[in-house]
Amino acid sequence: MDARPIVHGGRPCILLRDPLQLTDKTLILPQALGPALALCDGTRDLSGISAALLVRFAVRVSPGTLEQLLQALDEMLLLDNERFAQAQVQALVAYHGAPFRPPTGAGQSYPADPAELRQLLQGYLDAADDVQPDPLPGRGLISPHIDYARGGSVYARVWKRAAQAVQAADLAIILGTDHYSESNLLTLTRQSYATPFGVLPTPPDLVEALAQAMGAEAAFAGELHHRGEHSIELAAVWLHYVRQERPCALLPILCGSFERFVRGQENPERDPQLNALVDVLRQTVAERRTVVIAAADLAHVGPAFGGAPLGWMERAQLQAADDELLAHIGSGDAPGFFAALRRDGDRRNVCGLPPIYLALRILQPVSGESIAYQRCPADQQGTSFVSVCGVVWH
Questions:
Q1: Has residue 220 been placed in a domain?
Q2: Which of 76, 312, 330, 354 has its CA 20 to 30 A from that of 267?
């Protein structure tokens, strides 16, 4: 579930939402009841949760309050039970039955009207008047997936620089961060992505080749995440516009958490599923005019992400850490990029780790040109930031 700290009625609370969007309901929970969520792990009944709250957290909650909480969680489909499973199946059937995956951010994150969207994107491009399209044959790029309002200038600079490669490609591979997947490393879909400019068709032959190499069950286990995840969509809109609204084949791949590699002993270079994907796509890139896009942000730091406020010294440290990552990205060094994040346990929450790492491996050998970098504010106090970059690979 998506859990965010808020202040409600003058009290610290937790806002709960369903990232799978099986329901549009939200639940506001007093912060003191937060530990109860962690105890709902399938090993305790109502009395067991009540006892654990008292013993482990010194929180006394009446059985009636706990019962109301569990009922609310059940109604929101946030409990892993039969009701949730049925709703998930129904949502997946509806997703598969639609003619395409609609642009869920249209009308919310950006204009749904094509004319208004053209005006918005062209305004960003016009403001990047010091950037010229790259005359060299680009092979890929890093595009942010932060909202356009904060990251518009970075989007514009990198897509303008990569315009010739993007326009010449007959296949685009977008590797996007899956923000809510902890168990699914890679997730495919057979659905085509739509933007307000039309539909970008997903190539069925390539999806099937990947599914066969990776194992179909694993490849599609988290497919419903495609429905609401914004990372691929925000890059696809720019792809479609920079191609002068001409469609091309689009292979959308969601990349889940690398926590098992960052905090454990496993190495992504030896993971069979990752290696299967890389092998198939390296062959694809060699045979087709392809542009590989990592839809990826960098660090997420500060109180908005559970960390300490950033002053001028911490901002300088963030800049230095991002500069190190950009150096590895620029030299095409996938192992070095991963090692730099693993060294400190990815304490800066770089959500773009999986797509950037995989893009580097798919395109190897490759060199990158850093086009843009920005720290975007993530709270009203100016103490939390998301850092984003734009890189073109040759």
A1: yes
A2: 330
Tracing tokens 């010294």 back to the chain, one arrives at 313
- Residue where the block lists tokens 């926590």: 259
pLDDT at residue 271 in the model? 97
Whether residue 99 is contained in a domain is answered as no
In 3D space, the residue among 299, 260, 285, 295 whose CA is nearest the CA of residue 361 turns out to be 285
| Element holding 371 (H helix, E strand) | strand 368-377
Which residue, among 185, 192, 252, 177, has the nearest Cα to 215 in the 3D structure? 185
| Same structural domain, 42 and 120 | no
- The pair of structure tokens assigned to 156 is 């514009």
| φ/ψ (deg, to 5) at 359 | -60, -40
Q: Out of 65, 92, 119, pick the residue that ends a domain.
A: 92
**Are 223 and 366 in the same domain?**
yes
19: tokens are 């990232």
Distance CA 201, CA 247 (A): 8
Residue 356's Cβ-side half-sphere holds a number of Cα atoms within 13 Å equal to 33
Domain C-terminal end among 38, 65, 92: 92
pLDDT recorded at residue 215: 96
Nearest to 84, CA basis, from 177, 1, 26, 15: 1
Amino acid, res. 66: L
CA 285 to chain centre: 23
One domain, residues 115 and 87: no
Do 291 and 322 lie in a common domain?
yes
- Average pLDDT along the chain, 394 residues, taken 10 residues at a time: 87 91 90 90 90 90 90 92 94 96 96 98 97 92 98 98 97 96 93 98 98 96 95 98 98 96 92 98 97 98 92 94 98 97 95 98 97 96 96 97
Residue 42 belongs to domain spanning: 2-92
Question: Rounded distance, CA 36 to CA 11, Å?
Answer: 18
Tokens, residue 246? 């001409």
* Strand boundaries in 47-89, DSSP class E: none
How far is residue 92 from each of residues 85, 89, 174, 206, measured CA to CA in Å? 11, 5, 22, 21
pLDDT at 122: 98
**How far, in Å, CA of 284 to CA of 179, rounded?**
27
How confident is the model at residue 265, as a pLDDT? 84
